[in-house]
Amino acid sequence: MRSLGDQVRDWHLGAQAVARGDWGSALRLFSGISEQPARIRFNVGCVHLLAGDPEAALR
């Protein structure tokens, strides 16, 4: 299991990827976070919407 520090780093890097418009990297980083809290799931849904995939956002 990855440390909390690693997961926070991935969330931060994912947020930076969103700011750059790098949807693939953002999804990879957010999805790698274990036991995703609601905030991470919300971020994943938003990235899917921004990437033009509303059906994936609903999952």
From TrEMBL:
<dbReference type="GO" id="GO:0016176">
    <property type="term" value="F:superoxide-generating NADPH oxidase activator activity"/>
</dbReference>
<protein>
    <recommendedName>
        <fullName>Tetratricopeptide repeat protein</fullName>
    </recommendedName>
</protein>
<dbReference type="InterPro" id="IPR011990">
    <property type="entry name" value="TPR-like_helical_dom_sf"/>
</dbReference>
<dbReference type="GO" id="GO:0042554">
    <property type="term" value="P:superoxide anion generation"/>
</dbReference>
<dbReference type="InterPro" id="IPR051864">
    <property type="entry name" value="NCF2_NOXA1"/>
</dbReference>
